[in-house]
């Protein structure tokens, strides 16, 4: 499953409609913006329809009828009155388009129209009991199972009936139907409920518990995460065990940071507690005794994989992680969506210029009417995050710096001169007079008289 587009209005500071289109073109969607501009609210709003469908007390989600918000909402830490726009009881309107792969539909025995589902939600939070309903549930073939076609004109209505003449003949129980469109929609309702039941657990907004405490002190790696990893490792379900295998594999990509240690999870049946360890020839070290940055890294990888969701969202994964690792974390998240680990999309907020998305990123900017979003090219992320360095006045050296890990940060005009705007190989060379020069790999090969095959 992938989220193709998303729209929201009336949620917290998202006063005016905010629309995100073309989301299915990338599997890693990075959202940048200043603090308090509304990035977190976007992810929360994205979670809201999935949360409502999953927590509704009825067996079937409410198609075009108002029902009270499920009581479990409060138990999950959500307070509906805090969803209000600046404290005003403005209705929350959400629209989301989901695309399902052929393999998914075959696995769940869903009909062809379910390859794309257009859902709309309306939540009323005021002085009365908060309510919600699904105002649109439309499939790829145009059939709307929520019985609502207010925007369809007479001509379009006639064309729709003509296109679905055969379906009407086969599905509509009464040839004397007063409202054939309504009866066609009613015939599509079982498909609607099947789709809603399938997607309700497919999205997860991850909480890294960065400030959790207890017997283990300030540990990001919670007991619940360790237990979930243990369950995945011991599972007889190949899909579950695949998540544990992926966790071990991705941790291996950071072997230098982890000191060559591999993750091992154990279970103490006497204490009824699972523990994640990092194992090396020197022995096993409980992972919650590691540094905060390493714990953060393990928590990101672990929570994403054990969530069992294939679309996940996470806030600022770079927190506590060394800047030299930011690009590696970004690349690892990207690869996790390109393998069989079960992830199809990752949404994340960030302040790091190293999180630039594979092609584009989403910029959230403040306006007088509330937050607005824009797609921007990856090479603009340094400027947008205000981390781009500009050359100082003439006759002084260009501004650059070296991190403690040995990474060199260069201003854009230098990267453009080297033709490595998006990063790339460079060579450092000691000149006869003792100066050290930096060349792009291609320039160095040309100057040294070597071929591309000799780049290594």
Task: Give the assembly state of these chains.
Answer: single chain
Q: Which parts are unreliable, with pLDDT below 50 for 5 consecutive residues or more? A: 211-218
Estimate the helix proportion, in percent.
Answer: 25-40%
Strand content: 15-25%
Number of strands: 19
The biggest sheet, with number of strands, parallel, antiparallel or mixed sense and barrel status, is: 6 strands, antiparallel
CA radius of gyration is 26 Å
Shape label:
globular
Average pLDDT reading: 82
Distance between the termini: 40 Å
* Protein structure class: alpha+beta
How many helices does DSSP assign?
13
Q: What's the arrangement of strands in the largest beta sheet?
A: 2-1-5-6-7-4
Can you put this structure into words, describing what you see?
- Strands 2-1-5-6-7-4 form a six-stranded antiparallel beta sheet, with helices on one face. Strands 8-12-13-3-14-15 form a six-stranded mixed beta sheet, with helices on one face. The chain has a three-stranded antiparallel beta sheet with strand order 9-10-11.
- The model is unreliable at 211-218 (pLDDT under 50).
- A hairpin with a 5-residue loop joins strand 16 and strand 17.
- It is an alpha+beta fold and 456 residues long.
- It has helices at residues 39-55, 72-75, 102-107, 154-163, 165-171, 180-199, 223-234, 238-252, 292-306, 323-336, 381-384, 412-417, 441-448; strands at residues 2-9, 18-20, 28-32, 67-68, 92-99, 116-124, 131-139, 203-205, 262-268, 273-280, 283-286, 311-315, 345-350, 360-367, 370-377, 401-402, 408-409, 426-430, 436-440.
- It starts with a strand and ends in an 8-residue tail after the last helix.
